[in-house]
Amino acid sequence: KRPVGLPAARTPTLGDGATSERPLGSLLNLPSAPPQPPTMLPGAPAAAWPAGAIRPAERIYAPPASDASAEKPLGILIYTSPADATAKSAVDQPLVGGPEQPISPAPSAPGQPASSSAAKGSGQPTTLRGGTLKKSAKRDTRAPVVPVHLSADEMQYDQNQGLVIAIGNVDIRHGDRRLLANKITYNQETDVVIAEGDASLTDSGGKIIFGDRMEIPGDLKGGVIYNIGLLLDNLSRVAASGARRSDGNITEFSNAVYSPCRLCADDATSPPIWQLKAVKVVHDQAGKTVEYRDTWLEVFGFPVAYTPYLRHPDPTVRRQSGFLAPSFGNSSDLGFMVRTPYYWAIDEQSDATFTPILTTSGGIGSSASYRHRYQNGKVDMNGSLMTGDSTGDIRGHIDSKAHFDISPTWRWGLDVQRASDDTYSRRYGIPSESILTTRGYLEGFRGTNYAAFNSYIFQDLDSTSGESTPTVIPMFDFNHVGTRDRFGGYTSLDMNVLSLARPKGTDTRRIAIRPKWQRPFSGVIGDRFTASVSLATDIYHVSELTRGDGTTFSGVSGRATPQTELQWRLPLVRDGDNYSQTLEPIASVVFAQNGGNPINIPNEDSQELEFDDTNIFQGNRYGGFDRVDGGLRLNYGTKWGLFGRKGGSTSFFVGQSYRPRIDDSFSKSSGLADNFSDVVTRFHLNPEKYVNLAHRSQFSPDNFSPKRNELSGQVGTPALTVGGTYILIDQQTGSGFAGREQMSNNVSSKIDKYWHAQFSSLTDLQSSELRSLGLQVIYENECVKLTTQLSRSYFQDREIRPNTTIGFTLVLKTLGEIKSDVFNIQ
Q1: Among the ranges given (254-263, 478-487, 585-594), the one the predictor scored with the smallest mean pLDDT
Q2: What's the rounded Cα separation, in Å, for the pair 403 and 443?
Q3: Model-level pTM?
Q4: Which residues pair with 364 in a beta bridge?
Q5: Which of 279, 379, 502, 664 lies 20 to 30 angstroms, CA to CA, from 208?
Q6: How far is residue 125's CA from residue 133's CA, in Å, rounded to a whole number?
């Protein structure tokens, strides 16, 4: 073996038979051939090598290669097979074959030898390109050739043994695979590449494999690797004493260690937070699975768990069928609990999870969920069944949602929420609303129009609701907003059709129509006006309506309530160097007839009225159709705001309403029963991102006694943030919403890069009782997340008693989750 070429200091001489087309002369005793027109190689430099820069060897060591040509005087060193365009992509074809049938050898650049015999120490990359068919295959000249690119500081060629040896910064690329090493030896006869010294192989999936020594075929898809290290896409690492890779797909590791955790920067020899050790690991890249045999889980170097067999999807898998990590818990009511979920990836569009639930005192059962994604919709279903508890009944719940698009205009859906009894969800820890709603709907959107058909069935989990819970079948809504007309105004229309029935109580049928026309215009001093005219027209048919005087009514009733409104506002702006300030007085006058709520009209959708800064200037401050805001009234208020150029803002609003005639449709505690209404305010302070305070209030103008106070705030940096909310709401007469006075607090701290803690509490100030406490501590880094929760609930309702919960959730990233709960610690 001897490199071609002599030191630069040697006086150049031309070999026998040297010509401008053959600057090496008779160095390799090439057969004579007619000169070929020069063609540039893809990616070759434009400047040709001068003939004088190439120096021939003193001796000839070998006869010419059997496949030598004028364009390739060294013949073909590394072979590639033509890609099968109908079966496999070019990058998947192996680099195997013999030199019997060269295919389309690439011509060299003008004045440049196509041989990569090479420039020792020149740093000029060497690119070899060529190909043959396997000996048993027929030649297909139409198939494209997959190029192999090789570059190195020095390259040697032993033609007798068929060896190509590249030394120094060796880089071989075949398609999207790449091999780097200090030294690479390629045997043309066996089609085996031996890489030594800091060898690394990047496969078609982007994973990087390291090894002290690699013996792999020319297609870079298989082989044996010693002292292997594997870097996955998510930066997880695998190390092993050895590995065998076959067909670019299966990799078998011996005495392997796997961990996504980074090693300690101060002591790389110390064990990571957690790692898996196994006698044998098999990674199926096509099947996207990793199998372990005789496996230990070590935490900080100490073994904590063993299993003879473990299998999980590799990090490229988004989802795969199999058992999920079980969860354990204990309760003085339910006893010891075990949940063992099984996840079923049905297909690309759907999946399901089944979770058997075993308890020692609360019975046995299972929960299940199902998800399906269609091209035009989706289905999400959740449910559970339990039996064998103290009641002796079969208990359960269902919570499902389905939504489908019919066309660009119309869609339909079905939401189902039901439970076997009032306390089932709370007892077994199932998230649930206090009122379960089953809804079927068909709705359409087009331009500024909206139409919807709805049906509702409610289940109130309050034991006092009895048989008063209504069923709505059907309800139709239509909303329209028109474009600007020739008078400069806009029309709108709201329409509602309702049929409501109860097992016992009032049944209601209603048609409500709300046409409206409004026109904005500007005043002479920059003020803005909006004039509007509307008409509330309603027809009712009721059965067994209990009126305010205690009598009942069944029959037809109706009303027509016209209303005219004029609103005025004057926005004033002042700019400063570092801020801008706005001041905007607002006033509106509303004309409507008195007595718009006769006793023969039921009130189904307007029982709860919250008078605040958001509805003080609305024409109807009731939220539904059954009550209208009648009579003459004047609304007035002022908004002020201060806004910083670099962020931060402060705003304030205060407003009130006056009516000459008292409207008895409002309760005494609503704030609208007297001539002068309560005063409503809103204040917001956010000078910078670490301070955020908000306050809303409603108080009597006579003695300034509060009817509602809501104060919330959050102050601090991520290192320490303190927040809280104070709520005071008086109960309105005849309202089903109980008044409350409560305080909630929370303190959170991002202690450092990995640790985060949070504390919360809720106190009922009316009864001076603590309602709940919570503490959460989280540790998270690149490979593990540990969450510890401690909470105490003082809520009590029949079989639901106060309880304490301690929860531990350990997530081993890329592997799974371990969860445990302990309840009712006394």
Answers
A1: 254-263
A2: 11
A3: 0.67
A4: 358, 387
A5: 279
A6: 26
